Amino acid sequence: MKFLVPVDFTDITNPLLRVAKKLALMRSAQILLLHAISPVIYLPYPESFGISPIDLSKLSELESRNIQIAKQRLDALRDFLNPVEVDTLVDIGDPAEVILSKEKLADLIILGSHSRGLIEKILIGSTSEKVVSYSHKPVLVLKGQEVESFKNVCVAHDLSRYAQEAFEFFLDLIPAEDGSRLTLLHVEETVEIPMVDVLTEKITQKIEEEKVNYLKSLLEKAQNKGWTAELVIEKYSSVSAGIAQFLKQRKYDLLVMGSRGLSGFKRVILGSTSSEVVKKVEIPVLIHKGFYL
Question: How does residue 55 score in pLDDT terms, banded at 50, 70 and 90?
């Protein structure tokens, strides 16, 4: 297994690397450290300003120097991650675009999320939100306070194959420790239903029973992996709002979700529950993507 870990050398880098190192040691995984450098842009002045044209070769030299500095800093981080096997990579461009262009090199992307003000989010968006929206690979977004381990986990399951794949991926990625607890959360959207006949009511009841039985079978699978597991079923007007509200009531180290992996056009029209949840919650979120026709 290989983790793609983008770093920007800010204050979130060390907490990010500590989590990545712990997971890598658990799974005997390799880490690919990635840093994206902003391109050096030449903005020409009008000749009337009386400023001599910039030698474009100087810009190239500046860009090359920035790359070398970044490589040296990544090499220093390699020592921090020892004994994990580490490769380093520096590229030029928008951070989200660079990460997405390299995602094929890894099985999981682990990245940190900066806290931004509302106006800043509207103007420039968030690298983590862009990666969650467009990546084809599982993404672990670390946000909020740093956690030492993922011992108290909430898995949001909507009965879809996307959620099931996320559940299976999580069980393989993070082994249970002493005291590990898992909450399997199923959020039902409340819908106003007109009066139904007795037959329809019986069918609905049967479906509910089968749904609960299926979710309970997942609890057994988690328990067989060493997790103390519980099932919680809640009703909210919105799935994303329901998940966020539930997480405010309890303390968790990690939220796990599946995502449909919508195409760009469908994402604009339908939105994405996983992207909305990442915006609303203040704990690490592991998103597993499913792409199907």
Answer: low
